[in-house]
Amino acid sequence: MTAVLYDLSLRMGYSYDVPASGARHIMRLMPLSLTNRQRLVAGSITISPTPDEQSHFLDFFQHPATAFMLRAPHEALDIRMQARVQVESQPIAADFSPLLADLPEEIAGIWSLAPDSPHHFLGDSPRLTPTREIADYARSCAKPDLTAMQIAHALCTRINKDFTYDPDATTVDTTPLEAFKLKRGVCQDFTHIMILALRSLGIPAGYVSGFLRTIPPPGKERLEGADAMHAWVRIWCGETIGWIELDPTNDIPAGTDHIVVAYGRDYSDVVPVIGVLKSYGGQRAVQAVDVIPLK
Fold first, then answer.
1. How many whole angstroms separate alpha carbon 6 and alpha carbon 8?
2. Bridge partners, 84 (sequence order)
3. Residue 225 pLDDT greater than 60, yes or no
4. Rounded distance, CA 67 to CA 167, Å?
5. Do 289 and 214 contact (CB within 8 A), yes or no?
6. Alpha-carbon torsion 3, 252, 123, 126, what sign?
7. Is the pLDDT of residue 294 over 60?
8. Rounded to the nearest 5°, which phi and psi values hold at 157?
9. Res 1: pLDDT
10. Peptide bond before 130: cis, by omega within 30 degrees of 0?
11. DSSP string across the chain
């Protein structure tokens, strides 16, 4: 097993046409420490203007989050995160996942409602409701002799082939069905479409928010989505295999190029920065990410 050490830097900035006040925000930006997967060596977050109030808590999925409030009027908000993270390579596991017809019995055998229980990742979630078009698309990949893992890989490849990466085609509020009809979008769109497709087949699936390596390995092309935070899919493939992670934007399993920040049912559970403020007029957002592997 090998490991890669990264230095990460993230800047998220917002500027307002009219000074904002009474702002309250929640951040989920710091990479996680995950057993046998990745280790947060060190990290820090700075906020400008300095918050008047700030607190830290764990959300339902046990991810560290920071809540802060700004009382005074401000024309801009600047958030910067720096971290050093070690990511370990994952062993290639044999496919001991059940056939699709046998998966419901394995799910029923899970009595836990812990944050990583597959029961949380089967039904509707705030941004994801079943759609006939995506369900029909999923069934075309669900051959009766395929295992849950094989179906997940088939859908990942199919989405990567059928959809075009286009950062100008969608926004953060584009629905999965709208992106599905466009056949264009970004990692958030492809991840939501794949989650809906898997859930329509009865395969538990969730959303992973994180970072993607920006410097390609020797001889390989740069991976799409590396200039911003990235998203990919988490799939439960039965009791023996458990959870696997696939990246439909690049048609690859999540590996040492992928750094996890948060897990959730969909984007609404892992929004990097969310909040409310008093203002009117427009606002502009900028985001810049560097993921630098250390020698």
1. 6
2. 7, 42
3. no
4. 29
5. yes
6. positive
7. yes
8. -65, -40
9. 67
10. no
11. --EEEEEEEEEEEEEEEEEEEEEEEEE--SPPPBTTTEEEEEEEEEEESPPSEEEEEE-TT--EEEEEEE-S-EEEEEEEEEEEEEEE--------PPBGGGHHHHHHT----STT-GGGGSS-BTTB---HHHHHHHHTT--TT-BHHHHHHHHHHHHHHH-EE-TTT--TT--HHHHHHHTEE-HHHHHHHHHHHHHHTT--EEEEEEEE-SSPPTT-PPPTTTTS-EEEEEEE--TTT-EEEEETTTTEE--TTEEEEEEESSGGGT-SEEEEEE--S-EEEEEEEEEEE--
Looking at residue 24, its amino acid is: R
* pLDDT tens for each residue of 214-224: 766 677 776 66
Q: Which two tokens stand for residue 91?
A: 């062993």
User: 232 near 208, Cβ under 8 Å?
Assistant: yes
Calculate mean pLDDT across residues 179-207.
97
Per-residue pLDDT, averaged over 186-208, amounts to 98
Strands 74-88 and 3-27: antiparallel
pLDDT band at 295 (very low <50, low <70, confident <90, very high): low
The number of residues making up the chain comes to: 295
Q: Give the Cα separation of 228 and 221 in Å (integer).
A: 17
Task: Compute the Cα dihedral for 87, 92, 96, 100 and give only its sign.
Answer: positive
Q: How many beta carbons lie within 10 A of that of residue 250, not counting itself? A: 23
> Which amino acid would we find at residue 138?
A
**Each residue's pLDDT tens digit, 276-289:** 999 888 889 888 89
Question: What's the pLDDT tens digit per position in 145-159?
Answer: 999 999 999 999 999
Cα(73)–Cα(110) distance, integer angstroms? 50
